[in-house]
Amino acid sequence: MTNMEREDGTTRDDLVQRVALMEAMIAEGRQTTVRFGWIFLLWGLIDLVGVGWGELQPDFRWVWPITISAGFVLQFIIFALRRKGGYRCGGSMRGRSVAAVWRMMGLTVLLYVVAAIVQHKAGQISYIAAILMFVGMAHAISAVILRWWAQGLVAGVWLAGGVATFFVPRSYVLGVFIAEMCLGMVLFGLYAMWLERRMSSEVQGERA
Amino acid sequence: MAEFEQEGGTTRDELVQRVELMERLIAEGRQYTGRNSWIFVLWGLVDLTAWAWQNYSPHIGGRWAWPICLAAGVVLTFVGKMMQKSDKGYSRSGVCSRVMAVWGMMGLAMGIYVASAMWTHFDWQFSYIAGLLMMLGMAHAISAMLLRWRMQGLVAAVYWAGGVAIFVCNSWRATNAIMLFEMGVVMILFGLYAMRKEPNGSGCKGERA
Fold it and tell me: Which residues does chain B have within 8 Å of residue A115's beta carbon, measured at their own beta carbons?
């Protein structure tokens, strides 16, 4: 194909370069998510431990405060270890945007959960639905920014879980929560970690 | 200042250009928010109308105050956006698209949450109303970080504080007052502030990143 020139002076090569730049930025943003896939896995397992412990000792009020605190401690330890290992957060604008989405989601959930637990409102249906909606919203924003259909699917699973919480009988709500943790957290975390491993092996292959 | 060259071969001029580009993109994002800030004003008025209807005229279909007002709000938002789209000469930069993604997905999540809670009659729970404020706070906070906009960050903090206050106060009277303040006053005031901040005739005009 010849190098056509448009009315505004933009050549085909310019357009190809712009598309390539956009694709590179999107790929960088996805890499940022993929690098932090272990956080999804970690919090999925932490929440499942919290649910299991709560079922074994339903009268013990400190189950969730202890579990969530342990989650934060573990997250900071793993962060520190990975930083020592040379991992750094993505520096592109798209990567930073995705990081902003997850940071603000974390802060929102933390404030909401702490306030509800302190005031003994953590048993309300709307409380559980809201948490699922927060996570679904963060996944949906990230999926749109990164044009990532797999993450969009995960967002759909979280939002569907939020809706289901309102509609299923009370005894099934815990089942919905466990399903969300397994599908939306653990499975997505494992998928992201698998992608990370594949990407790093591809990079190593190119270097070799 | 003399032109220096870094180890990576990036000159001072290139760095200045990059900073200028980032600043321009952020300014475009804020202009985009300003251009669409009528939506905040609209939803503030919608919420105030529904609240007033439910509290002052409960005998005239008060049960349907929120569903009717929210549906009218959605219709008016779509009509307004359609009218805005017909206003030619505007395009969106990368930052504008990200801000749009934040508000679009917040609208989707909130729409599903509100509809489900109303349908199943769980909209009386404190955690439901606190969840709404938290969701709004989250969207404002993400947008504030993308646009490096301190004022919007403050608005996010006000929404979060409202959400936490609903749990702490644990009373219907306080919840009503907080809801009225957050959904009416804060939303309308921020909308008016963002509208005033938008420079005339600009707003992501013809530039892409």
Answer: 130, 163-164, 167-168
**Residue of A175, A46, A112 whose CA lies nearest to B131:** A112
Top residue of B116, B170, B207 to mutate, by most chain A CBs within 10 Å, is B116
Is the predicted pLDDT of residue B94 greater than 50, yes or no? yes
In a domain, A15, yes or no: no
CA distance B189 to chain A (A): 23
DSSP assigned state of A5: B
Buried b (16+ CB within 10 A) or exposed e, B38-68: bbbbbbbbbbbbbbebbeeeeeeeeeebbee
**Whole-prediction pTM:** 0.84
User: Within the 70-89 window of chain A, which residues sit less than 8 Å (CB to CB) from chain B?
Assistant: none
| pLDDT recorded at residue A87 | 63
Q: 10 Å Cβ neighbour count for B92?
A: 18
Does any domain span residue A174?
yes
Share of chain A above pLDDT 90, in %: 54
Partner B contacted by A53 (CB < 8 A) = no
- Of A153-167, B28-42, B102-116, B195-209, give the lowest mean pLDDT range: B195-209
Using the beta-carbon criterion (under 8 Å), do B127 and A124 form an inter-chain contact? yes
Residue B24, Cβ neighbours under 10 Å: how many?
A: 14
Q: Which of B25, B108, B163 sits opposite A140 (nearest CB)?
A: B108
Global ipTM: 0.83
Domain, as residue range, for A48: 21-197
> A144 and B105: CB-CB below 8 Å?
yes
State how many domains chain A has.
1
In the predicted structure, residue B199 carries a pLDDT above the cut 80? no
Flag whether residue A137 sits within 8 Å of chain B, measured between CB atoms.
Answer: yes
pLDDT at B2: 47
- Tell me if A206 is assigned to some domain: no
Question: B68: which 2 tokens?
Answer: 């009717």
Does the residue A4 lie in any domain? no
